[in-house]
Specification:
Layout lengths: L1 H9 L5 E5 L1 H10 L18 E3 L5 E5 L4 H5 L5 H16 L1
Parallel strand pairs: 1-3
Antiparallel strand pairs: 2-3
């Protein structure tokens, strides 16, 4: 988590943070400063869910592209592409 904290501090122009799985969302939420979080409560995780942070950045959630998720078709290629299409829309704003 120390590495992630440094990365987030270094990447000043980041508009979107993609989390791959609920564990990644929980990890990110624990290191974000309280003033950036729109709520102290962990957002509900679902594929394609997004949360706007108080500093203007957006957190977008995706199922992790593990073999367990892809082989069982919990995450398909079109679903994963859809998340990146969603992210691209934030750059058009």
């Amino acid at each position: 988590s120390e590495y992630l904290v440094r990365e987030l501090q270094a990447l000043k122009n980041v508009k979107v943070i993609l989390v791959l799985g609920q564990i990644a969302l929980k990890g990110l939420w624990t290191i974000l400063p309280e003033e950036i979080k729109p709520s102290r409560a962990l957002p509900k995780f679902s594929h394609g869910a997004s949360v706007k942070l108080n500093d203007g950045r957006v957190v977008v959630c995706s199922y992790h592209p593990s073999q367990q998720n892809t082989f069982t078709r919990k995450l398909t290629e079109p679903m994963f592409d859809g998340v990146f299409n969603q992210i691209n829309r934030y750059f058009a704003l």
